[in-house]
Amino acid sequence: MSKIKITPSQDGSNTVYSHVYKEHYHSVYGAIAESKHIYIQSGIATIEKNNISVLEIGFGTGLNAILTQMYAEINRVKITYNTIEKHPIESEIYKNLNYCSILNTDKDKFIRLHTIPFDEYYNISEYFTFRKTEIDLLNYKPNFVYDLVFFDAFAPDIQPDLWTKKIFQTLYNNLSDNGILVTYSSKGIVKTALREVGFTVKRKAGPPPKRHILFAQKR
After folding, report:
1. Where are the alpha helices (DSSP H) in the chain?
2. Which residues pair with 132 in a beta bridge?
3. Domain ranges, ordered by start, for the chain
4. What does pTM read for this prediction?
5. Which of 45, 92, 93, 85 shows the shortest CA–CA distance to 68?
6. CATH number for the domain formed by residue range(s) 30-218
């Protein structure tokens, strides 16, 4: 049996279920709706700069990346996108995800994000530069400054070692002034850890039916 499988979500877009972690990569209520709400509308769209650096924790299906690429090209904002992933998904999975048909974008763009080599920057388009790294977050040491973090690891009760003060301190230290971290988890232990390293943390409305997400800013 494959370690992961494609499953439908309620908005028609695919999510993926991990048999290893016993959890879906995206919300079963709407994969695209969730990613747009948290990482685009509550994340990238809140930054008033024409040149933005993003760090994504958990490349996963590539949904957040393709949505960010689309945002960059539609809004003519230059985005440098670094993403890390410990367990890249297999080609039989990403080739069969239905995001591009729903988003009405070229599937070759999406496939390219999965197939380009690791650890090098690629100018995917005039507005989108992309690099992915195959590594465990516990071993990752960023060597650049970023404006925004998409923190999209599996949930704190699934991967508790990733949602710690030590991890958030490293991310905080490499954020630009007033830089932002957004995540779907609004658990108390996450809020506490973020605040302890210096973030100002706010709860924002989550994508239905989720009540809240977290928006943390470096001060």
Report:
1. 31-35, 63-75, 91-94, 99-103, 107-115, 165-173, 188-196
2. 83
3. 30-218
4. 0.97
5. 45
6. 3.40.50.150
